[in-house]
Design brief:
271 residues; alpha/beta; Metallo-beta-lactamase, Chain A; seven-stranded mixed beta sheet; four-stranded mixed beta sheet; 12 helices; 22% strand; RibonucZ/Hydroxyglut_hydro; DUF4336
Length: 271
């Protein structure tokens, strides 16, 4: 299944040092429902203590292994939400001493799907949302919020030293150009992809994506979603790494505030 969704990662993956010696992104083609060319991206962060934190693990190719080895020891592997866990098994097998982090319900989902048995060390639950911590070293370097009101149960992180927001499905920034640049696949081809790209971008007023999030992603518990967006908005970040689409290299806070405008306004009114 992974080969159909993320074709040929050995040749098509784009590995880029976004912040030299600190943050590396691993971008690959990815076909949602085997049709939508939305791209996929994993993020590697070299922490101050020399260990490596992995977010949204992607295909563990030999090139990725070599890059990881040059950065340090993998100590944390995080599935950012219910959908971003496809390659969790291989990463856990290769780096068995790393803490595995994910949202509530994901271990059960993986078991039901017949995925590899992966021991989760830290599970975020809505009932204990802001009580859950990872460990002192991790907590010193990252802000994090469990957006349990997101339809995919999203975990969002901010690497404080580099002011970099890392997320999976909270905000899309399509088309997925970098993620397909080595694949020979046109990320704007196909009527379904064109429609999705026209909705899930951050250009201009980005009204379509705002509506998708307001009426879709956050609809189940909008008040809780608003509260999470207000907490994230209080963080200090300048860069945004989405799993789908282009990295926002600068002024990411402005982009975030634009996309989440209605939620931030609602949060302020409720105070």
């Amino acid at each position: 299944m992974s080969s159909k969704l993320s074709p040929n990662p050995e040749q098509a993956m784009v590995i880029r040092e976004l912040v030299p010696n600190v943050i590396t992104t691993c971008s690959t083609p990815f076909l949602r429902f085997k049709r939508f060319k939305i791209g996929g991206r994993g993020t590697l962060v070299r922490m101050n203590n020399g260990s490596v934190a992995v977010f949204s693990p992607i295909a563990l190719t030999e090139e990725v292994k070599q890059k990881v080895a040059s950065m340090g020891e993998v100590k944390y592997i995080t599935a950012l939400d219910f959908e971003h866990h496809m390659f969790l098994g291989p990463w856990n097998k290769e780096y068995p001493n790393a803490k595995v982090i994910g949202p509530e319900g994901l271990p059960e989902k993986r078991k039901k799907q017949g995925d590899e048995d992966v021991p989760f060390n830290v599970i975020f639950e809505a009932s204990k949302n802001r009580e859950t911590r990872v460990d002192p070293e991790f907590d010193a370097e990252f802000d994090y919020e469990y957006v349990h009101a997101h339809s995919n149960k999203e975990l969002v992180f901010n690497h404080k030293p580099t002011k970099t927001l890392i997320e999976a499905d909270l905000i899309f920034n399509l088309p997925a150009l970098e993620q397909h640049e080595k694949s020979g696949i046109d990320p704007n081809s196909g009527i379904l992809t064109k429609i999705f790209n026209s909705l899930m971008h951050t250009r201009g007023e980005a009204l379509a994506q705002k509506r998708v999030i307001w009426y879709g992603t956050s609809a189940k518990d909008r008040n809780a979603f608003n509260d999470s967006m207000a907490r994230i908005n209080a963080w200090d970040f300048e860069r945004l790494i989405p799993c789908h689409g282009e990295v926002v290299e600068k002024d990411a806070k402005t982009v975030f505030q634009k996309i989440m405008q209605w939620h931030l306004e609602a949060a302020r009114k409720s105070q």
